[in-house]
Design goal:
This protein has 371 residues and is of the alpha+beta class. Helices cover 40% and strands 15% of the residues. The strands form 3 sheets. Strands 1, 2, 3, 4, 5, 6, 7 and 8 form an 8-stranded mixed beta sheet that branches. It has a two-stranded parallel sheet with strand order 9-12. A two-stranded antiparallel sheet has the order 10-11.
Length: 371
């Protein structure tokens, strides 16, 4: 649940909303109390920006800790340190991951697991078959245990009417498995939801007249890599600028976008030739760094890179397919050598990622015949 814990980060010049919650990170055997930042585009900051799949691995590995050992050393940065004494924790990797997924849905204005459950309840109340009740029950059980009691927003009765409704007469309450739902309590639950439906129907709409805010597609990170040869079946590594995909421009063939970029950056023809023939992209950069830069290079380099990326994906259909497969995701490009071209954990300007998104949009426009 987000509450008032609102934050954001910048990606591609746009503000990506987020929130945070407390968590322990186990680093070097010490459990460090920290903040876990969750963003609408599906990235989680647990001392580095990671995708949901990567976050799950950090949960499974214990880096983001949900089990706290008795006697374990804990620390709150620059505030205090202590050891755990009979710690009582109710989170598991599965529960925390489910809560984070719900948070991302909430940040995007989509129904989370609670919303999906209440929608299934509406279906059941409209057509009270056992099949619909079973679907509503499954949706209820899919809500993380830690937040089920908030599902109805009723702090007096909490989720007991919801449990009674989806379990049905004779069913067992999930929270109290030794207690069965009586017919009387079931009838009360039905009446509760019918009354709830009436006042919800009468409540004024909160949807803006011009529609809801756009959601954020899951981000794709293009990690630093050093490809030495072309892959038979390219993956996201093929989107790196130093991936060995030759491009031809103005009668010159360059081994990669990186070679072409650095060759075009230098003023002297002799130095430019040595950059073009460099064995690999990093070597091309090193050679260019020793040469004199073209006048006005910093003001024109973005246009140069855009042209080079267009050439790459126009001349390599397999790599264009990899780029198109990213859909409308934000592309975060790591570049240890440049805060201009790389996102670098939200600290850089990510111009390579932004230009890749532009080229992706142009490829889609060409496919659709939209000029």
């Amino acid at each position: 649940m987000i509450g008032n814990r609102i934050t954001s980060r910048m990606a591609d010049g746009a503000r990506v909303p987020g929130t945070w919650r407390h968590a322990f990170i186990c680093n070097g055997g010490t459990y460090l109390l920290t903040d876990l930042f969750i963003y609408a585009d599906g990235l989680v900051d647990c001392w580095e920006l990671v995708t949901l799949d990567e976050f799950e691995k950090k949960l499974r590995s214990g880096w983001v800790a949900t089990s706290l050992p008795d006697g374990g050393l804990a620390s709150a940065h620059h505030l205090a340190s202590w050891t755990f004494g009979e710690p009582d924790t109710w989170l598991t990797p599965e529960l925390l991951l489910a809560e984070v997924r719900d948070t991302i849905d909430e940040l995007n204005g989509r129904p989370d697991s609670t919303g999906r459950c209440l929608a299934a309840v509406d279906v059941f109340l409209a057509d009270r078959t056992e099949e619909n009740r079973s679907a509503a029950r499954a949706a209820y059980l899919a809500i993380p245990k830690t937040v089920r009691h908030y599902a109805l927003g009723d702090m007096d009765r909490k989720d007991r009417p919801l449990q009674a409704l989806v379990m049905g007469p004779g069913g067992r309450f999930p929270r109290w498995p030794d207690v069965r739902v009586s017919q009387e309590e079931y009838d009360e639950a039905v009446a509760y939801f019918e009354e709830r439906g009436r006042w919800l129907a009468e409540a004024p709409s909160r949807v803006p007249a011009d529609g809801a805010v756009n959601s954020f597609a899951p981000a794709v990170k293009l990690y630093e890599s050093y490809p030495q040869r072309a892959l038979e079946h390219p993956d996201k590594r093929g989107l790196r600028n130093d991936y060995p995909a030759p491009i031809t421009l103005d009668g010159v063939t360059y081994p990669s976008v990186t070679h072409a970029y650095w060759a075009r950056s230098v003023a002297e023809p002799e130095a430019r030739a040595s950059v073009v023939t460099a064995e690999r992209g990093p070597k091309a950069r090193t050679l260019a760094a020793k040469a004199t830069r073209r006048e006005g290079w910093e003001l024109t380099r973005t246009a140069v890179m855009a042209r080079l990326l267009r050439a790459k994906y126009q001349q390599h259909s397999d790599l264009a397919a990899v780029l198109l497969a990213t859909g409308d995701a934000t592309l975060l490009y790591d570049d240890a050598d440049s805060g201009f071209w790389g996102d670098n954990g939200g600290r850089g300007r990510n111009w390579t990622g932004r230009l890749l998104e532009l080229v992706r949009s142009e490829l889609l426009a060409d496919q659709a015949g939209i000029g």
